[in-house]
Amino acid sequence: MVVLIASTTMPILKAEADLFPEGLFDLPAETHAWWVAHVRPRAEKQVAREARWLDVPFYLPLREQTVLRRERKQTSFLPLFPGYLFFRGGLEHRLDILRTNLCVRVIPVLDQGAIHEDLLQVRHLQDSGLPLIPYPDIAPGDPILVVDGPFKGYRGTVVKTKGRMRLIASVRFIGRSISVELDREATVPERKG
């Protein structure tokens, strides 16, 4: 007799490394510039696997998504920024990524400090364990500073979603954002200048 248990969680694919090496954000900027690989549709994880095999430092922010299918919960890990992989290195690493034939183009990053700050903020938001929701590029709103709670010191834009406040953290270079829920009392308007 076979017994099926309803509502069990079944991972579609196991979670893969989304960061390589572990100290990616500590690599020296002089020898490990940030690059952005614009990859073929649904090829982000394969490019990350190739990058790891080629020893190219990379960051592919992933989010966990659980859906109910045929009375079973299925979990998958999807890119927060579909179509993009962030990697570090010199021109030789750029060529390695292009040679995978999974990359449409490699975009050079002119403001290394800004992308490093943006991606480090995304990583910290991931590490918080709170659910992250990808957003398409959004119109700029009022800038805010988080002054209390686990995201104290973070800057972003606040939007209301279903009556709740959400902090939007953006990777300005590719025009993509993610959000996390927070208390309104934890934020103050950020002053320019």
Give a quick account of the main beta sheet: strands, pairing sense, barrel closure: 6 strands, antiparallel
Strand content: 35-45%
Q: What is the domain tally?
A: 2
Widest sheet, order of strands: 9-13-12-11-10-14
Q: Would you state the CATH class of the largest domain? A: Alpha Beta
Q: Give me the CATH architecture of the largest domain, please.
A: 2-Layer Sandwich
Q: What percentage of residues falls in helices of 4 or more residues?
A: 10-25%
Q: How many β-strands, per DSSP?
A: 14
Sequence stretches where pLDDT stays below 50 over 5 or more residues:
1-11, 136-140
Radius of gyration: 18 Å
CATH topology (fold) name of the largest domain: Alpha-Beta Plaits
Kindly describe this structure.
The structure is a single chain. With 193 residues, the chain is of the alpha+beta class. The protein folds into two domains: 8-109, Alpha-Beta Plaits; 130-193, SH3 type barrels, CATH 2.30.30. Helices cover 18% and strands 38% of the residues. The strands form three sheets. A six-stranded antiparallel β-sheet has the order 9-13-12-11-10-14, with helices on one face. It has a five-stranded antiparallel β-sheet with strand order 2-4-7-3-8, with helices on both faces. The longest helix has 16 residues, at 112-127. The N and C termini lie far apart (71 Å). The model is unreliable at 1-11 and 136-140 (pLDDT under 50).
Topology:
Layout: E1 9-11, E2 19-20, E3 33-39, H1 44-53, E4 58-59, E5 62-69, E6 72-79, E7 84-89, H2 91-98, E8 103-108, H3 112-127, E9 133-135, E10 143-146, E11 155-161, E12 164-171, E13 176-181, E14 187-189
Parallel strand pairs: 1-6
Antiparallel strand pairs: 2-4, 3-7, 3-8, 4-7, 5-6, 9-13, 10-11, 10-14, 11-12, 12-13
